[in-house]
Amino acid sequence: MKTFTNLLKVEFKRIFSNGVLMAIFFAAPIGYGIIFGYVYQQAKVLDLPIVIVDQDQSPTTDMIIDAFVDNEGLLVKDVRLTPGNLLEEMPLEQYAAVVTLPVGFEGDVLQKRHPEIRVDLNMANILNANTASNNINTVLMTLNAGMEIDGLKKQGMHPDQAKASYETFKINFNKLYNSAGNYVNFMLPGILAAIMQQIIFLAVALAFSRDFEDGYFANLVAKKKSALYLIFLKATPFLIMLPFIWFVIAMYFPYFKITADIFNFPMLVLTLLLTLASMMIGMLFSVAIPNQLKATELLMVISTPAFILSGFTWPTEAIPGWITGVAQFIPVTQFLSGFRRIAFYGGDLASIASETKILLGITVVAFIAMLLLLQFKVNKTAKKQTVVVEG
């Protein structure tokens, strides 16, 4: 036990003496959490800039313009008579859309000639384009219904009958689980989980690869020739420090008013499994690749696309099967699937049985592979030391 304690002290010294590791392990999750939290703090996309080309300049088009001004999702940056050179302006001003009200619009409306309003969307940013399109459609459909009902009333129809004649049926949308459409609730948990997987990968990847590079591994083998002992020694500092990082991450939820339910036992189990699976993969790479730079570079190849491939923001049904098959063995994929079941759907341990099984499988397979490979390297190093002593 005394030997283990002394070696553990050395491990902590080596970890804290590595500025890059400290930046990855502590600064990255804390700093990124704050940055991304404030990025999505507004919760909704508001004030998307649009241009209105009013070629009719009539009371009806004035009413339409006023309706656009009152919409919180849109910001009327300019109202003009002619379009000008909007193709050149749009990239510079980042207009989300251009709404064109044609010449003779009011007259065509009064004569029931069904004029067409043209909407040009800036599809360079699909999220902005979709949001702008929804808001523009809401404004125009509301006005369209109002104009139709007013027309029927002018023909002498009773207001209630006019409304009933236009509305064949009603639609009532009931939004569940994130009723406000809050982007903090939607995006931040997934991003934080991906960041945590990445920092665990990169931090643990230096555990053995650094020892191989600077020769410290031979000192460890001289003390203990058990791969299991050395794995436990290397994992202990991270198992002590990671709960602190996870606690900081958890505090972002109340701070940014994220409504997800994360303070429960199933989430604790899921978080523990993500941590262990990520640690085992990182340590396996650390043992297999005795070079810090190469080990971290290869793990970056895995972790960089992990969030996109997880299906958290883009439906897995739209991703080719062979890609989703590979993504299933990236820990954060299973974590985010289970996270949604627990945090938003109120699930229990039974609801995340498949995710926990896969995470346990990843942990066990990576651990066994690392144990066998490390024991081989321990035996090889010990044999060299014996030859040197005998020589």
Automatic annotation (TrEMBL):
Gene3D superfamilies: abc type-2 transporter like domain. GO terms for cellular component: plasma membrane. Belongs to the ABC-2 integral membrane protein family. It comes from the Bacteria. It is a multi-pass membrane protein. It is found in: Cell membrane. The keyword Glycoprotein does not apply. Keywords: Cell membrane, Membrane, Transmembrane, Transmembrane helix, Transport. The chain crosses the membrane at residues 20-40, 186-208, 228-253, 265-289, 296-314, 358-376. InterPro entries: ABC-2_transporter_component (IPR051449), ABC2_TM (IPR013525), ABC2_TM_bact-type (IPR047817). This is ABC transporter permease. It comes from Gelidibacter maritimus. GO terms for molecular function: ABC-type transporter activity. Pfam families: ABC2_membrane_3. PANTHER family: ABC TRANSPORTER PERMEASE, MEMBRANE COMPONENT OF ABC TRANSPORTER YHHJ-RELATED. Residues 153-377 form the ABC transmembrane type-2 domain.
